[in-house]
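User: Assemble these into one structure.

Assistant: Restating your components, then the assembled model:
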Amino acid sequence: QYQGLAGRSTNEVLQLYSAHGQQQKLQRSSVVIQLHGTIKKRLKQDVKSLRSFALQLSKDFQHQSKTYLYQVLTAVQGIQLQNEAMQMFQLKAFDLEQSLQEVSERYEKEKQKRRALHNSLVELRGNIRVHCRIRPLLPFDTAAGHSISQDRQRNFSERVAYAADDETVLVKCSRPGHASINKTFQFERVYSASESQDTVFEDVAPLLTSLLDGYNVCIMAYGQTGSGKTYTMLGPQSENFAFSMEDESELGIIPRATQEVFRLISEKPPGSYWVEVSVVEVYNNEIFDLLAKDSCGKVFGVKRDVVTTREGKRDVPLLTHETVENASEFLHLVNLGLQLRVRHPTLVHAHSSRSHLVVTLTITTIVSGDNFGTSWEDEQSSQRLNKDVSCTFPQKMRENKSASSSRASSPAQHEATEKLKQVKTRLQLVDLAGSECVGMSGVTGAALRETSFINRSLSALADVLGAIAEQRSHVPYRNSKLTHLLQDSIGGDAKLLVMLCISPGQKYLTESMQSLGFGARARQVQRGQVKKKNFPVQSKAK
Ligand code: ADP
Ligand code: MG
């Protein structure tokens, strides 16, 4: 084509060339137009699908957000409902808390009322109360034994006796291979391991008011060795068995009771009461006077005997009674007695828990025809005080202290010289021998004798309480020196408090159950109503 053109003129060539260029341009632009159309079409399609996609997407989004919104709304509503419910619950809880508080307050009041009623009931029935004290687990409970394996050791020192509440003892009884059974025992008062000497004494104190009202009172601690009898009755002791008044908060019932007696006496007209003390030990069914002095003034244990006087009262002829003016004089005397208890050759026994210790406070009141009406404001107590009027009493004796101390206490000795009446009431505080049933096998000689005497005297005590419970006409007080000695303060209208002492460990389970059984039986004791005494003519002069 270009060769053909060679001959043509440049003009023609140029024309052709431009025509060709235009043609090409035309061709190119038609392609472009075509392409453009296609692209446009495609683009339109794309835009369309994009739009529908976007539409779909926004629809989806709207739908989703609606669902989410709905969910959020329901959740918010739920939370609101929950909040309302929570508020309701809070209100309800508050109401319940308030009513619980009211109920507990009412319960406390009712309990106090019930206690007061119970006390008057006990008073009417003759007054045996049984309290139970569970001592804490102590280091010696967990001390490793020689022959026992570690496992058994751990088992043994496990706590099984608890105070479920202030009237219930709960004991977990378990035997190997058996499910454990819980046993409960009810008493007038149960002290947990954390309760102090103070708390224990609070419940004892009212009995001392009764003492000055003219009732004989006996407080005894019963339990196996190591269960806390001496701690409860006297307080923690040093090695020589002495106890001191240094730490007042640790003092036991005996020193506190004496303080209380002197406090109560200080509220009475001066000189109208005085207090004598005797300390005896009952060992192998013999009574030993721990305050008796020989001619040189040295104390030594002397055997005494208990008799029943013509007036039907118990008496220990020649027993030493020391007059004391205050609690510290008393403690001094008791300490002397306690030290003798360990020292004296006739009283040799390995452990204080092998004998019964009986500390007696005899409170003598002088009642004369003249001062009677003024001395005793409370008619009831004056009536009671007159119940025990045993003899008339020479005034000189009251003035002469030395005559009244270390005297023989037979009331029959006093002759009538003036119209003065002597009224005696007795407070007997007893730390009993350990109640553990020591096996007889392998035990010989002195130890066997000792063990069988303890077993006999404690079962005599159980028999006496049993006979009283069944209101039998014959109560075997004389089956042992212990019960004979205590007859006036556990029989008749006297008030007896048995303080059961319990060791909490598994190791002591059998003994604890035995003690609780003893307490439960003693608790059933219901004596006849307190007999109304005939009052002397003077009482009516009031
Ligand atoms: P028991 O006279 O019955 O043989 P103890 O009174 O001698 O027993 O008590 C044995 C040990 O346990 C003593 O060391 C005593 O101080 C301690 N103990 C007893 N009861 C308690 C108690 N409630 N709190 C603290 N220690 C106690
Ligand atoms: Mg003891």
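The chain has 16 helices and 16 strands.
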